[in-house]
Design goal:
Blueprint lengths: L1 E2 L1 H10 L8 E3 L2 H11 L3 E5 L12 E4 L2 H11 L3 E2 L2 E2 L3 E5 L3 E12 L4 E7 L6 H7 L5 E5 L7 H10 L7 H17 L2 E12 L4 E3 L3 E4 L8 H4 L9 H8 L3 E4 L4 E5 L2 H13 L6 E4 L6 H12 L6 E8 L4 H14 L6 E7 L2 H8 L5 E3 L2 H13 L1
Parallel strand pairs: 15-17, 17-18, 18-19
Antiparallel strand pairs: 1-13, 2-7, 3-4, 3-7, 5-6, 8-9, 8-11, 9-10, 11-12, 11-13, 14-16
Helix pairs in contact: 2-3, 5-6, 9-13, 10-11, 11-12
Bound molecules: guanosine-5'-diphosphate and manganese (II) ion.
Length: about 375
Amino acid sequence: MKIHEFQAKQVLRRFGVPAPDGAVCETPEEARDHAAALGAPVVIKAQVLVGGRGKAGGVKVARSPEEAFTAARAILGMDIKGLTVRRVLVEPALDIREEYYIGVALDRASQRNTVIVSASGGVDIEEVAEQTPGKIARQCVDPVIGFRSWHALDVAKRGGIPAEALPGAVDLLQKLMRAYLESDAVLAEVNPLALTADGELVAADAKMVIDDNALFRQEELASLREDEGEDPIEAEARRRGIQYVRLDGDIGVIGNGAGLVMATIDEVRTAGGKAANFLDIGGGARAELVRNALEIVLMDPRVRCVFFNVFGGITRGDEVARGILAARESLEVRVPMVIRLAGTEAEAGRRLLDGSGLIPAETMQEAAAKAVELARA
Ligand code: GDP
Ligand code: MN
């Protein structure tokens, strides 16, 4: 889960990493008033969960409250990589002398947390990584030994941090690491880490990605998730690792394979009905997975019928049938279910469903027609 720059800065500050303290504004008027309160100059920054805001025009320095107003008006509503800017961060601008990069990331290849440092920070770190990888230093962290001050000094030196900034960088790297570990992050990045005209190191930007699997024990961070417009059933499906998209019809659709599920949704439409959702159970159809999928689909009170469409390849029809029967036993299913099984062991699957009250169908078209009819009944 990504968090916004202003939120990441709050986290980092708590661990002792200096970062400008600003205010989040939703209107140009608010931005102007905050700029006036802070005293110019300020920097106005789009708060969207993507990088490259600077290049997209989403970061502007303003020298007066009026300029802050104009900048905020330009940035609010802007589209950055498909995201609409709804909020800007207004904070005291830094007098930046140098821009460095420091970050901690989970490196899956080495299965280690990795500290990354470069004196060539700023907006183009990806380019630096590609064209002059020698300017980027890495340090894998041994989980037993941990990230010690000598590691920090070594990686900061290799990253090209000049002598005058080394003590500060060593200190910040360790604080960044603590913030990363205690937040269960998979990425904590400061780019740029600004060396200001007064020789201070300050986080001018901050980015954190929290491990979704750790959100259960990171309540405060978990609560930052943008629920704006997020569907509660989709959120629950995501928590359970199920590919679910809520639609606005009344026929719950469950299938294996994204293509098949989309085709099923089309078929329902052709039969005159409307799917309530997209749900792909993927390969395999263990009872637990089927149960979870069914439970998610039934959370939608609009669902009046469930349409299972499973094409047996590696997934066997009899296994799916058993899964559905077991799921039905452990769940209170209040709507009719139409099951279309095809492919490997489909026949055996249909036999298992005989007399269960579940409605079998041989083709997708037949199943869709039945589902539409049952949903209307
Ligand atoms: P990103 O493009 O999404 O990574 O956004 P950043 O927060 O990194 O901002 C992009 C660039 O704007 C930075 O590399 C800086 O050069 C500049 N910038 C950001 N904050 C400040 C600031 O407080 N003062 C000044 N002068 N420049 C800033
Ligand atoms: Mn940045």
